[in-house]
Design goal:
Elements lengths: L2 H17 L5 H12 L9 E7 L2 E7 L8 E5 L13 H10 L3 E6 L10 H16 L7 E6 L1 H15 L7 E5 L11 H4 L9 H11 L23 E6 L5 H13 L4 E6 L14 H17 L2
Parallel strand pairs: 3-4, 3-5, 5-6, 6-7, 7-8
Antiparallel strand pairs: 1-2, 2-4
Helix pairs in contact: 4-5
Length: about 300
């Protein structure tokens, strides 16, 4: 890893934190859009916005990809901010390496739409892919970062519980898996993390949790049974307070007999993949994950 590359990323994060001011949810959403709009998206990836039964969505794909294979992407943002647009720098980088199409989903956000609205939207998109579009479940991978990583697990559990055919796998990027904030790394990594603080997470958790219950397994997915889920890939940086969430999630998956691969990336920040344009390790991680996803699809 280039020390200069990581220094540049960390300086950007410090500047972004200094510019952020508490405000309404709409103001926070606009701030995230403005901050991430400067990041370039991958070249050679075409975009096709559309809606799935009223849910914002976007196809992202190279010209030469298979149409019968899809990576359903669920963006991060604490379940309350973030969008298809904020995550295009990351999702188009994924689309550049995935053998099928990426479907980026703009699920409903809290606090206007608390849990389980996001799960319902993700499952609806999955049903649309498999039932309406004829994409085989075995050719679908579900992925997401931060809150979208937790949502990936919650969606897989909901698919299983509904008796639907399971997708080929789930890829979680720095997942937020424990809304109760009980992990030891919430304090031990606090000085290293330039993005996430326990105070911010508590605010977002209160906005999202169903009925205010942050321990509900639909929100704190390490409290859910993961038995029967497809293989999981978890990638996380070691300079983040949510490191413990990834470790706990991998442990829960292993205890429930789920095949899981946990990758810890030394010194890297929360959802370091977002910095693929300036961080070589991010590009390596995405390339490895898309290779993993390509190997899962039939």
């Amino acid at each position: 890893m280039s020390a200069d590359e990581l220094k540049t990323v960390n300086e950007l994060l410090r500047a972004a934190n200094a510019a952020v001011r508490p405000g309404s949810w709409d103001e926070r959403r606009a701030g995230m859009e403005a901050t991430l709009s400067v990041f370039p998206r991958a070249e050679g990836v075409a975009l096709q916005p559309f809606r799935i039964n009223g849910i914002d969505a976007e196809w992202q794909a190279r010209r030469d990809v298979r149409e019968d294979a899809v990576l359903l992407y669920l963006h991060g943002g604490g379940y309350a901010v973030g969008s298809i647009a904020t995550h295009r720098p990351l999702t188009t980088e994924i689309a550049a390496g995935f053998d099928g199409r990426v479907l980026s989903l703009g699920y409903r956000l809290a606090p206007e739409h608390p849990c389980p609205a996001a799960i319902e939207d993700a499952v609806a998109a999955y049903r649309w892919l498999t039932d309406d579009q004829g994409v085989p479940a075995a050719n679908v991978v579900i992925a997401g970062d931060s809150a979208g990583g937790g949502l990936t697990i919650a969606t897989l559990v909901a698919i299983r519980d509904a008796g639907l055919a399971l997708p080929a796998g789930g890829w979680c990027l720095s997942p937020w898996a424990d809304l109760t904030q009980t992990s030891g790394t919430m304090t031990s990594k606090a000085a290293d993390d330039l993005i996430i603080t326990p105070e911010t997470l508590n605010e977002y958790a209160a906005a999202y949790a169903p009925g205010g219950d942050v321990s509900d397994p639909r929100a704190t997915v390490i409290n859910a049974s993961l038995k029967g889920l497809p293989p999981l890939l978890i990638q996380v940086g070691t300079a983040e307070t949510l490191l413990g969430d990834s470790i706990a999630l991998a442990g829960r998956a292993s205890a429930d007999d789920v095949a899981v691969t946990l990758e810890t990336w030394p010194g890297l920040p929360h959802v370091f993949h977002m910095f693929a344009a300036m961080l070589g390790e991010a590009r390596v991680a995405i390339a490895g994950a898309t290779e993993w996803a390509n190997a899962r699809i039939a």
